[in-house]
Specification:
The protein is α+β, with helices and mostly antiparallel strands. The chain contains 4 helices and 6 strands.
Length: 185
């Protein structure tokens, strides 16, 4: 028996808002994964082509910023992670304003690892059905260093068994289907 599903206007508006919020979160995840895996296309997919990014240390159109970021991390760090946390999104039709807290860790080629905290203040726009960053200001709240703790050799070996961390498409996070994550000797 076919029964038509009816959704009231308030519920339908809520579903649309949640879809938009999820697509914006997916955009932010493309950015962080793209920069950490040195996946230029993925990182660029978080931006509209004419987007501006103001990170303080580097500013410009999206493509120039992406090239700078990947180059800088490659030159000065061996590994890094961009982690996003608390987020607020204000939706206004096909424009949204967001504030997303970030944590950054980077293993430097020289000196102790870096640890930074701040916020991405973004204007997102939905163009041709796709949410992406139109303008970003990175508010850098605190930058410091992180002191790593030496691990017993057997513990370090066990932790490394599922690595290594790769900054390219050979990283295990690209494996489809995911199979045994152990490194073969």
């Amino acid at each position: 028996m076919d029964r038509a599903l009816t959704i009231d206007a308030e519920t339908l508006a809520f579903i649309r808002q949640q879809k938009d919020r999820q697509e914006i979160l997916d955009c932010l995840h493309r950015y962080t994964r793209g920069v950490d895996r040195f996946d230029r296309e993925l990182m660029l997919s978080a931006y509209h082509p004419d987007a501006i990014d103001q990170h303080g240390v580097a500013e410009g159109v999206a493509a120039d910023f992406v090239d700078w970021a990947i180059g800088w991390h490659g030159e000065f760090q061996t590994r890094h992670q961009h982690i996003i946390a608390n987020q607020t999104i204000e939706l206004d039709g096909d424009v949204a304003h967001g504030e997303t807290y970030y944590i950054f860790w980077g293993e430097n080629r020289e000196g102790p690892p870096s640890l930074a905290f701040g916020r991405y203040v973004d204007r997102f726009e939905k163009r041709n059905g796709r949410w992406a960053i139109a303008h970003r200001v990175c508010v850098n709240e605190k930058v410091g260093t992180f002191n790593a703790v030496p691990l017993p050799p057997e513990w370090a070996a066990a932790l490394a068994a599922t690595g290594p961390c790769r900054r390219d498409r050979q990283d295990i996070s690209y494996a489809r289907p995911l199979a045994d994550g152990r490194i073969q000797p």
